[in-house]
């Protein structure tokens, strides 16, 4: 099972160290714009249609204040603009990196 060993922000990137020895580097703007939460990506209505909301970012939207692991499968990022509902599964982080 893939585990996240360490995460740290370096400049404008999130650096991730994985249990398989790999490292990932993700630009913070790419990470935020990929936020999988319903507020950012939308959610299905009763007919199954997903209407993606209009999300407006500011410079604070791309400043990661802190992160915490969620169980053994995801990372939650707390952004300077107050957004924190996105849970980034490890497989998504690997794809982004």
Automatic annotation (TrEMBL):
<feature type="domain" description="Gamma-butyrobetaine hydroxylase-like N-terminal">
    <location>
        <begin position="12"/>
        <end position="94"/>
    </location>
</feature>
<dbReference type="InterPro" id="IPR010376">
    <property type="entry name" value="GBBH-like_N"/>
</dbReference>
<keyword id="KW-0479">Metal-binding</keyword>
<dbReference type="InterPro" id="IPR038492">
    <property type="entry name" value="GBBH-like_N_sf"/>
</dbReference>
<dbReference type="Pfam" id="PF06155">
    <property type="entry name" value="GBBH-like_N"/>
</dbReference>
<keyword id="KW-0408">Iron</keyword>
<protein>
    <submittedName>
        <fullName>DUF971 domain-containing protein</fullName>
    </submittedName>
</protein>
<dbReference type="GO" id="GO:0046872">
    <property type="term" value="F:metal ion binding"/>
</dbReference>
């Amino acid at each position: 099972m893939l585990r996240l060993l360490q995460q740290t922000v370096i400049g404008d990137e999130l650096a991730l160290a994985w249990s398989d020895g790999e490292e990932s580097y993700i630009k913070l703007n790419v990470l935020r714009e990929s936020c999988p939460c319903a507020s950012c990506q939308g959610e299905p209505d009763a007919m199954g249609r997903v209407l993606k909301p209009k999300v407006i970012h500011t410079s604070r939207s791309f400043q990661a204040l802190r992160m915490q692991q969620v169980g053994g499968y995801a990372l939650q990022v707390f952004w300077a603009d107050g957004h924190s509902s996105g849970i980034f599964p490890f497989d998504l982080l690997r794809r982004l990196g």
